[in-house]
Amino acid sequence: MQGQTYGEIRSLFGIPKSTLSNWFSKLKIGKKAQKTLESKRKNGYLKLVEFNKVRTVNIKKENESIRKKYESGIGKLTNRELALLGAALYWGEGYKNFNLKRGNYPYICFGNSDPEMTVVFMNFLERILNIPKSRMSGHVMIYPNLSPIKSVKYWQNLTKIPKDRIRYQVALSRASQSKRPKHLLPHGTFQIRVSQRQDFFKIRGLIDGIIKAGTSNK
Asked: Which domain of life is it from (predicted)?
């Protein structure tokens, strides 16, 4: 044997690798052939590593190209688009007890850990519902391994809600045994609250409009 691989032998004679493996299972390979095979293995491995590196770079470039294309297609949001977006965000992440008994007053309560989403929703409140930051209050939910001072400061700097209108609460979880990796929720979650009943029903009306339009057959 001169150090040919199963793949090379298969190419020459058309014999399946499984057959070759059975034939050569007890074959003793000389040092020269072993050296040749080892060199081929290394070269094949290095080529594979290089191929994977190039492929990874190309995939990243393609991903970024797709992202930029669709990002540029958004442009500036109109008031109608922002109204739909804000209502959809609240529909997914907000307090939605639409069936309260008479005499109970619902309120706006939107919570998330994503800072960008929080800012978008605040823009919706200010621009579409005309709710100033002075009427908003913030509630920070953190875990015991986070600093309340740092978390409150982070969300106050982000939202610009007056500091005296932001509170925090430490959430204890039996499942996590009071331990949760900091990188998952580095600043906890933030709730934006507006207590005005009429504002709540404005959002409800927008959501109902989306439902009506989205479920219509026409």
From this structure: Bacteria
